[in-house]
């Protein structure tokens, strides 16, 4: 349980760090999104929406003469079917032609434009549905919504009479328009409604009894007999009565088939009205959504950029991306002069965090030795410009502060500048020794003193035309053996691993290397390759130093102490160097 809580805490811290260090990406995406949305709502043409409310009742099976198809009016698909019918192309085409929308600019593109402008929105947990029409004209939107609702109600009634028209044509071919080829006329007294009528059945029964009596009397009396005439009169009255009742039933069937007595289960509850204000764009809602999407999109972009960022920032980056022990970090510092005095002032100040950091690194190097000999250190980096010379000089000084005799060798024979920082002549140095010396003891005449009595310097001298060949001579191993017999610590300000091989030549003669990484600049993958090349040469890499840590480090969560400490230092003007003549290292 504790482990899962720790993992959650680490993940949250990571996401908060991404939010902090990539805040400009997030802010940029947010501003662009909001400004784009503001421009849209300011320039977009207003759209008006008008809505009619329609009630769709469930169909009830009525006891009528009409033979209707079976409809599951209680099923959900009934309502889904009605919603689709509301936007059917035939219905929209009817409305389009009725309102002559082809003359309106909003719908000049045809029925497709009308279909895109119509919205069907069922109201949840009810039998109501909103029929909405959109247009740049509020009056036109109202007309379209009402016309579509009315046409839908009429279409629903017509669909119920679809089969009734065929039956009506068969019963009354002279009164109903034919919907196809007419069939044979149907005898009206054979209609189910007539046959099933109790009154007509009773009348026909009485008529049958009179016919029986008339047959019996006809055998005894002549047709002119008063009894015969009375029976015939009664039979005529019954036939007339049956004919009248049949006509009444047929008229009812005709009325039923014609739809005069038919009810509609769909009706308009609220007709559409002319809207007073536009429905689109919704300015406040659009800006709010844009702000949310801008923040979310910016943060997702920040996560992507952070995931693709292979540069080194934190101790975790050093250990995971480069695969080296973390020796420490040094802030980006300023000092008054690029000289030995400037370095001494920078490192010796009572509130100098750079000096404290370098002393901590000196201690970490001692831990990295773990009892093994680590007197000669090669200071190298992945590429040029990562501050290895600054680190070499600073480490040489902090080791000399312990009372150790330190020799600082300028191992870069291609771009030497150590003599400038210490204000020393460059006539003779390491290149002269490697080219002309016959004995390692001759190096003693090339060593130059510094204001620090325990720190000596061997500069490059003149730049040779063949640095790699000079560093490959056996004289270099003799020089290092001579130096180790006279000094407690030898620090070589070497070259970068890429793109030249001088650092690998130095690796044969040093006990270990200290790798310098520039904060937010050194590529972790390239630095890992450089480390592997040093390892292939057989040189142990003691660890890595993150150099030139800037205020951006606050976003990485690993340098809070530095800013707390350094801010106190900045509050004391007499302890701080003036920025007018300051120079960044």
Structure description:
With 585 residues, this protein is of the alpha/beta class. It has 3 domains: 1-44 and 281-309, no CATH class; 164-261, no CATH class; 310-584, Rossmann fold (3-Layer(aba) Sandwich). It contains 22 helices and 14 strands. It has helices spanning 2-21, 23-43, 76-86, 89-98, 111-117, 138-160, 162-171, 192-195, 198-218, 226-258, 283-308, 315-322, 340-348, 353-369, 388-400, 418-422, 430-436, 467-471, 475-484, 502-506, 524-536, 560-570; strands spanning 48-56, 118-122, 128-135, 266-270, 326-331, 334-335, 376-381, 406-410, 448-449, 455-458, 489-493, 512-518, 540-549, 583-584. It has an 8-stranded mixed beta sheet with strand order 5-13-12-7-11-8-10-9, sandwiched between helices. Strands 2-3-1-4 form a 4-stranded antiparallel beta sheet. The chain has a two-stranded antiparallel sheet with strand order 6-14. A hairpin with a 5-residue loop joins strand 9 and strand 10. Helix 2 packs antiparallel against helix 11 and helix 4 (89-98) packs across helix 6 (138-160). The longest helix is centred in the middle third of the chain and has 33 residues, at 226-258. It is rod-shaped and about 175 Å long. The protein starts with a helix and ends with a strand. The model is unreliable at 62-73, 176-184 and 558-585 (pLDDT under 50).
